[in-house]
Amino acid sequence: MTIVSTTSQPTASPASSPLAPPTGADDRRGLRLLSVLASGLPADLGTITEPAAYTVPAVFSRQVTHEERLRIEDPAVARRLVERTGADASLALVVEDRRLLIQNTTLRRLEDGLAAAIGEMLLELDQDLLAAQDRRAAEAGARQAVERTRSDRVIQAAARISFDPSSAAGSDDGSTGSR
Prior knowledge:
The protein has 3 helices and 5 strands; from the N terminus they run βββααββα.
């Protein structure tokens, strides 16, 4: 995991910056974490007064959707991460703007596997949400095809209607039938 410092650094081109906005298909796919935001870490890290656990802010690759936020902040997700990694049971995930606040953890726990597990969770979440989106799109396509068929039948029925009196010659009472 990369740590983003707030001290001045050589300027990189936007395309190579870890904070560069996603392009193309990444806009729809691939919510991921780019780096730890070092300026958001406690000032006393590395000192004798370092807290046993703290909040680690990480930067998302793009804005998080409402549905993604609901899934990420679900306490069951944090419990699964605790089970997978042995992280502290008080672990919590909170989305704030384009940041994930990983609460009640440490940089060491993240290095020891929690970061990879969070990345895997985001990949699974992305795949689940995309599969649901694809299902909804397929269902909408099927409904649209049914509606198109219905509309075509109505148009064909309307096209068979004739107001020409000579076309009613086959009718017993001289009137045109309705369908």
